[in-house]
Write the structure tokens for this entry.
Amino acid sequence: MNTNEPFNLEYAPAPESTKIVNIAKSYDLFIGGKFVKAKSGKTFSTINPATEEHLSTIAEASTDDVNKAVKAARKGYENYWRDMPGKQRARYLYRIARQIQERSREFAVLETLDGGKPIKESRDFDLPQVAAHFFYNAGWADKLDYAFPNRKVSPHGVVGQIIPWNFPLLMAAWKIAPALATGNTVVLKPAETTPLTALLLAELIQDADLPPGVVNIVTGAGETGEALVNHPDINKLAFTGSTDVGKMIQKAAAARRLPLTLELGGKAAHVVFEDAAIDQAVEGVVNGIFFNQGHVCCAGSRLLVQESIAEDFIARLKRRVALLRVGDPLDKNTDVGAINSDAQLTRIQELVESGVAEGADIFQPDCKLPAKGFWFTPTLFTGVQQSHRIAREEIFGPVLSIQTFRTAEEAVEKANNTPYGLSAGIWTEKGSKILWMADRLQAGVVWANTYNQFDPSSPFGGYKESGFGREGGLQGLSPYVRNAVGGRS
Amino acid sequence: MNKNLPVAKTYKLFINGAFPRSESGYTLPIRNTEGQLLANISKASRKDLRDSVRAARSAQEPWASRTAYNRGQILYRIAEMMEARREEFIAVLESTGETNKEAVGQVEDAIERWVWYAGWADKIHHVLGTVNPVAGPYFNFTMPEPTGVVGVVAAEDPALLGLVSRLAPIIVSGNTAVVVVDAEAGLAAVTLAEVLATSDLPGGVVNLLTGDKHELLPWMLGHLDINSVDLTGAPKDIDQKVLEESAVNVKRTVWGDQADESPYVIADFLEMKTVWHPIGR
């Protein structure tokens, strides 16, 4: 065999069956333990971004509907949840966790249908993490006295929560599980392009016999979110999404001194030193930016590679990127799925065009994209200047900007030269350098010789304009209680 | 009676370890309860605020890079220097209307705050940091780090204790501070600055501006190089629009309680950094 011939890496199709899911023609709002029609009568369509096929018609919550949901949450808080012993709250959360595990495949397929992410990610990452978050936080519900020594903490009351479309069910779990464990009730608004798994979770919550009003789910877009943010009877807000929207929410909350957590955008530096384990680093960098089509707030979207190895490293990276399988998210072999929406695709295209226009060199492998749906070829940019938009702005897509550095000091300076501070990556085999770098990188999560690892026991959240407050771990509980961390908002 | 006419002290701003007058040239008269002039205190301008932020930013990384042991020692040194000048603090507080009993109590409590927080410098990591049992072959830990430059609006009543109760937990972890104080509470604050200047605290770690809070606050909340603001002593009638300014760079805003003495106050001005590393051979 001629070794210069490329290997044939074509796989036979291996589609996951969609028979396991049963999508209703339409979905109502989940308020007070029941599915109720939106007063507005308005609806919107949710589609499969891989095919552009209509999946279901979703109720759009108006201000009136949000009022109703907050009222239900208040009742749920006062009548059931606030005074329920922690041990009982824990039992409910454990029950939800178990039922999620039992119906895990169904949720995974639905997540992939509605959001476009590869089934291997929804099945092997999102769903196990969702269940784990409920399990982890369940255990805290009756142990809060040990979480905050010398303090008697109490819940805020009704919490408004707004989540994004990149990890729809996982973000719901990150929000709901700690809020419930600490004794709050919630009104959750899923993203308008990915409401289905949250609504299936609502069905599961009914099956789990959670008292009415403890979890309420209102579907809709920006206006629904605004109604929730501005609702006078909300005691705390938690938002995950873009920095722009986060700032608007902070403004609204600041005037009312409303406790707030924000998990916002990022532009993470992924730093590769010459003494890194190169092949592992290539894998790490690829995982860092192409995981979930790059729709990840902590994506390693800026590669900083040491100049001495840059040429070789970039060549290896290109070879690896050319092997990514882009296509049908339901295919078990797919690495990169569909872009979540037409709007997001347009944004990615616009930023990539700006990269070319500003003079960076683009690399895109030959890649057959499906005719229908929203797709974007995995893209690398070399020759990127710090001033380029692709080096400064969050693209939230499968696009990596590559820059080089000579010294560790320069790597730190370039890495921190951004208003964001969510995450960072380091690749070197030298332990002392890892700790030296980790100390200096202004980021809430630092992955050394790995990337994009998550765990319910591990706090996640940003520095600077990537937000404040943590999700996960012991530190993830304090935003949901009064009197632990004084008055930060 | 003194043979000579008493030499009155000039009360100035405290920026980057020095005591400049306001670049604006403005002052505000402070009088005692009998109407006698105590001081023409400096009225800080927007430019003074900007200079202070620059000083605080330059001082932040070096201050945070000191060992926790060293920061603890410096906070304790502040307590020592206050103790040495307790009579002066008591006199200042009395001159602005406190009874002797109140003044003595406040000074003692303020000294105790420095001692108490000094001890936290090398203990907050134990209490607020964690090693996290992630479900995989990774070593994973979370450690607190200072947020950066903190804008402080100190409570005015009690003037000395209100300021110390917020300043000590803010700087102990490695933050630097820009404090704004209303002129009326400025005498105690500037006297504290004179203690800070002689306590081995590096210049720029604490910067103190006397003047008009209403005027200084919007500039502070809108400043892009301030990471966090402590609004514990913010005026009750503060404009909502002014508060909205804090969103410009996602500032952490804290509404605390000057009576609160706890590591959770320190935590309000910390960021949590989580580091992952694989475990393998």
Summary: Residues 26-264+465-482 of chain A form a domain with the Aldehyde Dehydrogenase; Chain A, domain 1 fold (CATH 3.40.605.10). The longest strand of chain A covers residues 53-59. The mean pLDDT of chain A is 96. The CA atoms of residues 78 and 157 of chain A lie 9 Å apart.
